C-alpha cells in the first residue's frame, strides 16, 4: 500500500475517533444509570432476524477488585487483548482465527482489525473492525478508560468476500472507571449524612413504615412510564426537526450529507432512549428489595401428608393459569418459529445471585406433536438430578417426598459443588396438557398445548431448610409447548 493511501485511511479513522468515543461514552452512561457501580450485572439476547441473520446483544458490568495499577492497568490489558485478538478468539471458541491487519499501529489509540475464522465445519467467517480507545485522567485519582469497536461498512482496499466467507459485523463499548475508598463509601452510604467526628448520643431508632409490595411496584411502574414518555417526546422532536430541515428543496450532495447526519443523530438518540429504559429496568431488578418473580406464589406446607396434597392441588389451577397468561404476554411480537434467547444475571444489594432466562426454541420433526414434547419434558423432570449433575458438574441427589401424580409433584434436590458447598432446592411442579379456548385457537394447531410451572416452597414444616449447612437455591420456571402448522 502506498504511503499516501495509508495516510488517507488513517486520517479518515482519526476523524471518526472523537465522535465514536463520545457516542460510546453517552451510551454506556445511559445504559448503566441506576445500576450499582461495584455490583456485577450481565444480560445477553440472541435471536434470528426475518432475513436469517443471527444477532447477539450483550451488556456486561464486571467489578475488578484489588487491581494493582488501577484503571490504567486494566486499559493496558484491554489493549493487549485487542493486539492478540486472534489468539483470544481461537482459544475461546475453538475455531482457528488468523489476522489480516491493515498494518496500523496504536500510536493514535485506534487501529483496524481484519480477522478470518474457520469453524470446525470448514466455514469461513470474516470481521473487519476498527477499534478506538482513550485513557482519561481527571482530578487526581478520578480516571477512566474507554474503548469502542465498530465494523467497516465498505472497504475498497480490502473488500468483503461474500461468495467465500460469511460476514460477521460487531460493535462494542468498554468502560473502566476507578472507584477509590471515598467513592466506595459514597456509593455504599448514598442517602445517609456523613458521620461527625464526635459520636452523638444514641437516639431512639425511628422505623419507616414499610410500603405494600403492590404500592412499590405501582410507583416504580409510574416512574418508568414517565421517564420513557419524556425521552420519547425528545425523540419525536428530533424526527420533526429532520422533516423541517429536509423540506422540499432539491437534494444536493451537501444537503444529502446533512440529512444523513441528522438521521444518524436521530437513530443514536433512539438507542439512548432504549438504553435508558433498559437501565431503569435493570436497576429495578438489581436494587428492589421486594421484587416478586413472575407467577411467584407463597407456598407453605405442613407436616401432614394429606394436608400437603390438598394445599398443592388447590394451587395447581391458579398457577397454570398465571403461567399461561405470562408466557402469552412475554412472547407477543416474537416469531413462534424463530429461536430467541435472553439471559440476565446480577447480584442484589443483599448479596443474592439471580438469573432470569427466557428462551423460545422451535422443535422440528416431532412426529407426535405437542404430546411427544410434553412426554419428553416429563421424562426430563423424572431424571432431573441426573441432568443437573451432568450439565453443572455438581453431584446432585434427589430427596423427594413421593407425593403427587403425573401432573403434580414435589422435588427436593441437594447439590454439592467441587468446593464442598451444598445447595438445596425445594420445588413443586405443576403441569397439564389441554386446549386453548375457542378465541385463542389461532395460537396453536388444533388449539393443543402443554404447560408446566414450578415454584419454590417458602416454608416446609416436614422438610425444613438447613441454612447453617446448605445454601438455599430458589427458582421459578414456566414452560409451554405449542403445535404449529408446517409452512410450505
TrEMBL record:
Statement: the UniProt record of this protein carries the keyword Coiled coil: yes
Coiled-coil zones: 214-241
Keywords: Coiled coil
Protein name: Uncharacterized protein
Highest classification ranks of the organism: Eukaryota, Sar, Stramenopiles, Oomycota, Peronosporomycetes
